[in-house]
Amino acid sequence: MAVLFTVFVAAVAVYTDIGFAHYKITGEPDLSYWTRNSSDNFESEYTGCMPLKLAALSVNGAINKSLGQREMNEVIRMNNGYLMSPMLPASDERLKYEADQIIALQNELESQGVQFLYVATLTKNSKYDPQLPVGEDDYTNSNLDKFLSYLDEGGVSYLDLRETAHEEGLNTYDLFYHTDHHWTTEAGFWAYTEIAKWMEANCGFEIDDTLTDFDNYEVTHYENAVLGSRGKRVGVCYGGLDDFDVIKPKFETKLEDLETHEVGTFEDLLINEDYVKENKDKLLSADIYDLGLQGSMHTQNQLCTNDSNIILVGDSFSFTVEQYLALSTNRFDVLSAYVPNGLADLVKQVHPTCVIVAQCPVFNLGSDMSFDFGYGTGE
């Protein structure tokens, strides 16, 4: 038994060493996309290349679940079975500073005749139906409430999608993946329609009703295609798998990528469904949400019926929203919410009708970089 165990460990080590060397040379992990986000942490990078990692995680997760353990690898299994990672409390000073940057941004844009909207995305632990087990705390909603109260004091236009969903009687959990921190593609489309309503009411242009009617889109359903970012930490047995829907227009589309000057359809430029098809069974190494949804960052809509020009500063929650906004506007530009310091220059260049900042509070509140918009107000 000792010899067999030694041989097994040696084989695993050799396989992992080869995978680790391949990752370091090529930058492409063989088994786990987590190695891309490990910040040069040797342990994370090395274990990300281990064979049978998903099987081992799943066995561990099954044992933890059978024992009633509600936390594993910094992931909490909520009362309804959804997986999440909670947010720590942010100081009032920190939130006030960040709100002041948004207030200053709106004032600067208004001085240039540009409309502004701040969008607060949904939070996975619902404000109106919290599902955390006893003894666990999450400060996402309290942080966001405090932040938005400061925006209120500063007269900022904002859309709190938590309140919108509650008013419309929507179940927040139906709008999230079980195993991922992101909302679903259907939730993103819903968020787009809410933003579209605001733009029509405040920006002086109309959006064709065809674009906001979900019946004018076809849905391609991929069953058990996603093991989300939280599920990758705990395996399949602990939280299950998620289905994934790709939402595409049934009507004609024609856009130009302003960086490459490629002209194509919605499917050509704004999503990557081929990635979903090719990787839906690669549960540990695939990143279906991010890599299946990211599209062109700067587009001209050649079939647009209005002359609007929109800039969106967004994080990965916006990946489910961007493509539909691109269909609704003449020119559409996207900047990352994590490095938005190019916004001031882009505003000068394109003279937008409106700037929208859409943030997931878990990943942006408390981050200095997310509130430096290039106007000299960031830290």
Search tags:
8-stranded mixed beta sheet, 40% helix, alpha/beta, 16% strand, 16 helices, 379 residues
Characterization of the model:
Helices cover 40% and strands 16% of the residues. It is of the alpha/beta class. An eight-stranded mixed sheet has the order 5-4-13-11-12-10-8-9, sandwiched between helices. Strand 2 (75-77) and strand 3 form a beta hairpin. Helix 4 crosses helix 5. The relative contact order is 0.13. The mean pLDDT is 90.
What layout of secondary structure does this protein have?
Elements: H1 2-26, H2 42-47, H3 53-66, E1 71-72, E2 75-77, E3 83-84, H4 92-111, E4 115-120, H5 140-153, E5 158-160, H6 161-167, H7 185-202, H8 209-212, E6 217-226, H9 231-234, H10 236-239, E7 242-249, E8 255-257, E9 263-264, H11 266-269, H12 273-279, H13 288-293, E10 298-301, E11 309-314, H14 322-328, E12 331-336, H15 343-350, E13 354-359, H16 361-364
Parallel strand pairs: 4-5, 4-13, 11-12, 11-13
Antiparallel strand pairs: 1-2, 2-3, 6-7, 8-9, 8-10, 10-12
Total helical segments: 16
The largest β sheet comes out as: 8 strands, mixed
Beta-strand residue percentage: 15-25%
Helix content: 40-55%
**SSE pattern, N- to C-terminal:** HHHEEEHEHEHHHEHHEEEHHHEEHEHEH
- The N- and C-terminal alpha carbons lie at a distance of 60 Å
